[in-house]
Design goal:
Bound molecules: pyridoxal-5'-phosphate
Shape: globular
CATH class of the largest domain: Alpha Beta
CATH architecture of the largest domain: 3-Layer(aba) Sandwich
Distance between the termini: 14 Å
Number of strands: 17
CATH superfamily of the largest domain: Type I PLP-dependent aspartate aminotransferase-like (Major domain)
Strand order of the largest sheet: 4-12-11-10-7-5-6
CATH topology of the largest domain: Aspartate Aminotransferase, domain 2
Number of domains: 2
């Protein structure tokens, strides 16, 4: 594969020093799909292109994005039921959030504010404190979910002290990939061969007896970290009553509970925080993804005042984990502020609840219609998991062999074929999960309408109606062997 001609160096022109030829912004906008694939392969992640090709996603280049849709360079309008793993809660380019950003730019407002206090960061923190229940009042702003979760675990550990720094976490958890939180992200793929933080114990998710036994046996456990709804695990909920019992156990043993709401928070489940359904308040929580109004990278850790003060409340401790360079950037903060106002004023949480209930009802109808394909529908609000039956046994032998040649990941699961064909034949985008190959995740923007839900269900119904053999052969014919 040849390098783009751009990489050659020009001789100095006049007095100007020689410089590499660089793409301009306009050049970037006008790149074609083949060139982007080359640049991505050469400079970002060649191995990842293999997976994009398996799904046929390597043939798509997005030109614009509006509301519920991506519009591709070749004019296709793709319904986004993936939603950037919950980061596109407001839809693409929500007009109010875009307008707030434009105004902020036109007024020459400042971005970086390391020397002075930022009115934007302060207002955003105050908004989050006003929304969060109980005395979840103290906010650390960063850019990502991993950064928010690092901050969450650090504030808890600093408050507990070294004698009680052991962390209890759940099987199938996902809390990010940075070095600290990687230790409590339960994935052999992501943990790879990295040296992890040793002082942690793992229990099955939602198993209160296992939590109780662990806390009773080991006094050095001072922190419990869990997603309120496991996203990467395949949209998995703890059984009823779990969170109340967890709260009581943590109180009894003086343990701090960190609730990761990076994926399930911000209205996704029909309430601002998913833990609110159970009327419980954790000691620390974290948000990210949609927090930046689906336009900016914003993550936030929110801690109970008492815990924060114990950890960092004095001048001597104030700078131990103060905001990093890009924590609380001006435009990111105002995007988040506008987003939070939109969330309430447009009743996006109510909409998530209503559309989610409708989708789950219709999906359960399809489960009855296609019992050999669909195993379970689960979730709440617009965070829905569709679990397929494992087809390792039912896939015709000849097909199984052909599929295995493409990639191991496709072997027992229909999800890859279904996702690829939903995109290819119906212009519908859905999400997968690395942890459970049999689950498709639906996490559409919270602005989804009844018509969007019907469009998704009609496409899904039509595709499932083809049956296993045709789904697999259509995939092999249309996606796997397609050139490009
Ligand atoms: C529950 C949860 N926590 C933390 C993270 C990490 O967020 P980020 O990818 O922004 O670092 C994610 C990302 O998917 C997540 O789903």
């Amino acid at each position: 594969m040849s390098m783009p001609a751009f990489k050659t160096e020009d001789a100095a022109a006049g007095d100007l020093p020689a410089r590499p030829k660089l793409y301009s912004v306009e050049d970037a906008k006008n790149l074609d799909v083949q060139t982007v694939k080359e640049l991505f392969t050469n400079h970002i992640n060649p191995g990842q292109v293999h997976f994009l090709k398996l799904l046929g996603f390597d043939k798509i280049l997005v030109d614009r994005a509006e509301g519920m849709h991506y519009i591709t360079k070749d004019g296709r309008k793709i319904l986004d039921f993936f939603g950037g793993f919950c980061s596109v809660a407001f839809g693409h380019n929500h007009p109010r959030i875009v307008a707030a950003r434009k105004k902020f730019q036109d007024e020459n407002r400042h971005e970086i504010c390391m020397a002075f206090m930022s009115q934007y960061a302060s207002a955003l923190a105050a908004n989050l404190a006003a929304i969060a229940p109980g005395d979840l009042d103290m906010v650390f702003l960063g850019s990502t979910g991993s950064e928010a979760m690092e901050a969450a675990i650090k504030v808890a550990e600093q408050a507990q002290g070294p004698e009680r720094s052991k962390i209890l976490h759940a099987a199938n958890s996902f809390h990010g990939k940075t070095k600290g939180v990687l230790s409590v992200t339960d994935s052999t793929l992501y943990q790879s061969q990295f040296k992890l933080v040793e002082n942690r114990v793992k229990v099955p998710f939602g198993d209160i007896n296992a939590v109780r036994a662990a806390l009773e046996a080991d006094r050095s456990i001072g922190i419990v970290v869990m997603e309120t709804v496991q996203g990467g695990g395949g949209i998995v909920e703890a059984p009823p009553g779990f969170w109340r019992e967890l709260r009581a156990l943590c109180d009894k043993h003086g343990v701090l509970w960190v609730a990761d709401e990076v994926q399930c928070g911000l209205g996704r489940t029909g309430q601002f925080f998913a833990f609110e359904r159970d009327n419980v308040v954790p000691d620390v929580t974290a948000l990210a993804k949609a927090l930046g109004g689906s336009k900016a990278a914003v993550g936030a850790m929110i801690a109970r005042r008492e815990i924060y003060m114990k950890a960092y409340g004095k001048p001597k401790t104030a700078l131990i984990h103060a905001q990093a360079t890009f924590g609380g950037m001006g435009e990111a903060c105002i995007s988040a502020i506008e987003g939070l106002n939109v969330l309430y004023e447009e009743d996006l949480m109510g909409n998530a609840q209503r559309q989610g209930d409708y989708l789950i009802e219709r999906l359960n109808g399809l489960r009855v219609k296609y019992p050999s394909l669909l195993k379970e529908i689960r979730g709440r609000g617009l965070m829905i998991g569709i679990e397929f039956n494992d087809i390792s046994e039912t896939m015709p032998f000849g097909l199984k062999h052909m599929v295995a040649l493409l990639d191991d990941k496709l072997k027992g699961s229909l999800c890859g074929f279904v996702g690829a064909l939903l995109l290819k034949d119906y212009d519908v985008l859905v999400a997968f999960t690395e942890y459970n190959r049999n689950v498709i995740r639906l996490e559409p923007p919270l602005i989804a309408t009844r018509e969007d839900c019907d469009r998704f269900i009609d496409a899904f119904d039509d595709l499932l109606g083809r049956g296993i053999t045709r789904i697999v052969t259509d995939y092999l014919r249309k996606v796997a062997v397609a050139k490009g």
